[in-house]
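Assemble and predict.
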Amino acid sequence: NAGVTQTPKFQVLKTGQSMTLQCAQDMNHNSMYWYRQDPGMGLRLIYYSASEGTTDKGEVPNGYNVSRLNKREFSLRLESAAPSQTSVYFCASRTQGAPNSPLHFGNGTRLTVT
Amino acid sequence: AQTVTQSQPEMSVQEAETVTLSCTYDTSESDYYLFWYKQPPSRQMILVIRQEAYKQQNATENRFSVNFQKAAKSFSLKISDSQLGDAAMYFCAYRSANTGNQFYFGTGTSLTVIP
């Protein structure tokens, strides 16, 4: 089972460049999430999508946009990258079928903005 | 936003010994879910254990168990018979049962296992 697949694994951008992080899950999950992980700050929610067709802001949405393309795919876009967006990005998904269902994570994307 | 606090940035344990990682959270709700995730150097986030707030019994998964103290808003993770493969970052997470979709994470505890 592939689970949650993120691409790319690593990326280096220059300030001002744009890019899209891709995420796909094959578990038929309703909800999908984007987190960023920074040293000493844990994981912070950027955006999430409770179901296909809906998206909501998390704790740190500024500088990002998302698209829930279909039930499987949820992309994160940086329109004009800034050094403060250097981070490790995780996509996650979750079924709403069980109330105690956990997040299932992809392997992360390490992004460096110079 | 809910606050999840892990007050121990780093911990160490001798192989085969027991270690307890602390987690506290701030909530006014009575119905919620708590989770511990492990992140080894591979960066993969792995679910270790979960607890429903309505359950009084502490969750157990093999060598991993929790001490859930609802009144104290505390959710500590105990690792028994520590193994070298337990070395990782450990994150505590909270999710409300009512406002539902967001998971809130602590800042993590880095666990070193000494051979």
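DSSP finds no helices and eleven strands in chain A.
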